[in-house]
# Entry
Amino acid sequence: MTITDVLPAMRSFSPSAFAARFSARRSESAPAPTAAPAAVRPESEPRKAEPRAPRKVEPLRPRIEIPVRDPSPAHKIAEGYRDRGRFLARQEEWETLGREICAADRDRLLTKGLRSVAALLAEGARSDAVEAGRAAVQKGEANAARAILTALELNMEEIPDCPATAYVVAMAHIDLARAWAGASRAADLSPPRFMSFKEHMGLAAELADRFDPFETQSPLWAEVRCRVLDIDPRPSQRVCDDYEDLIDLEPGNPDHLRALGRDLLPRRFGNRETLEREARRAAMRTEDVWGVGGYSWVYMGAIEKDPDALRGLDADLFAEGLHDILSRHPGQDMANRLAAFTGMTASSVSAPGTIQARISDCFNWIAQDHLHELHPAVWALAPAPSREERVEIETCDLVKRGRTRAISALAEHFAPLLDGGRRLVFTPQGLQMPRLD
# Structure
């Protein structure tokens, strides 16, 4: 039995109506058992243990059945590029690394999960230095953190004009600047932490001044310019133009659109009106790639950081954008990403007709029509509501955390059907809802 057979109008179903319908049917067919009266014994008669006949307990069938894919193809490919960058850096093959990063940047190579291949190679290349630097930051050792990146910069001596290796160093400085800031805004940092934050950001900005993103045709350097806006004296006057350059250079990378949404929040460099205007402009500039999906990507980035961004959202345009995204990228990586966002990141208890309810409706059709398998890493790493800081998760916990989050979101959304005696079975043909045996 398919969902079409059970729910001819699922997208507009009433949870309360289904709950009442299935609960009533269950109560008619299976009346509640009554307790047997206890035997009365004389007080003088000792109680004897009565043997109980062994009872066979049937194994419980899962109420939600969905195949788990770990690692997902997109996650595995991304890790492969990170490992490649880390290997070349450890072997000190910086010229080879520089050529591979530059080629991937020039050709705008993206993984199956729409991650920049050049950025992933660079992330792996600096990972050892950044890990050691973060350990120094945790101890408050500014000199040690600085020395670690100075050692990394020595790799540029033989190839000082290579934009790829310079990018590795610039992003390492930005990573450590973020480590000094933590979850706080730069303005709220203590003087010592702010000085370290500013120093690392300043060194990254100096490198960015050496490599013009349009002369080098490099989205990587356009990204660096957006990342160092924190130390610009007038970031609100630059943020829209800098992101326009970045998105125009690499419109197919949704990470840039999401980053724009984050940086246009009021606590960053924008406000609600600017966010709405730039989300619509981004949708127009990327229409050939995303339809109106650019609008949705920008707001997803904003909402992941601040749920209050929902207040300015055009819910109908947002939903249309999700349809456009999935029509262009119908794979399971994208289905999981959008399901995790609509079912968990932006979820909340809401009354009918609210923006939250509209997003919940989007989770409904994404789960029904597009979600066939579970990618735990996507759910495990998705921002949770009202949590701004990135939670560091051990790799071995990704599957457990991601599966728990996904099953919880599905169980909450489809609770009326589960309570009515149905199972959710996700298949490549769509969501099926057979009765429990």
Remarks:
- The chain is about 60% helix and 0% strand.
